Amino acid sequence: MKASDEAEFTEFAAAMIRRLRRTAYLMCGDWHRAEDAAQDALVKVYRRWNRIDRTHGLNSYAHQCLVTSVFDQSRKPWRRERLVDADDRAGVLADPAGSIDDRMFVVEALAALPPSQRACVVLRHYGDLSLEQTAAVLGIGVGGVKSQTSRALTRLRELLDQTERSAP
């Protein structure tokens, strides 16, 4: 790789790593796995750097690599166990405004969704990708993105309503 390409990739990676890591976290619910997935995605982008259309498809390709990495990680047998449970969060300081609790409820609700629905919601509403971009990243049709997102949002509402009713 040429020095100019190396510098361009380094700049891209520095700009994207936080966004990729956050997106991965919302998809898998574990910061360690999210870090691994974001790094795996950047490695895949680096390998294809000279062949990627950097004017239009770079962010989409990075997100596609990220989704693939998250899904691949979830298929590995040692990754199926959940390492953090509710008792482990008991030591976290309470947030007076409750915003930390709210975020944790949303992350837990996202974790309860099937992976494809979770990916659609995260890419559409957090990643702010269009229907077409999300479809391209996930390798499904626009109609599939619409139906998966609709089902996911309905289920999220149910889960969050249950959480709200059970809160003290």
Automatic annotation (TrEMBL):
Residues 107-156 form the RNA polymerase sigma factor 70 region 4 type domain. GO terms for molecular function: DNA binding; sigma factor activity. SUPFAM superfamilies: Sigma2 domain of RNA polymerase sigma factors, Sigma3 and sigma4 domains of RNA polymerase sigma factors. Gene3D superfamilies: 1.10.1740.10, Winged helix-like DNA-binding domain superfamily/Winged helix DNA-binding domain. The keyword DNA-binding applies. Coiled coil: none annotated. NCBIfam families: SigE-fam_strep (TIGR02983), sigma70-ECF (TIGR02937). Belongs to the sigma-70 factor family. ECF subfamily. This is RNA polymerase sigma-70 factor (Sigma-E family). It comes from Kribbella rubisoli.
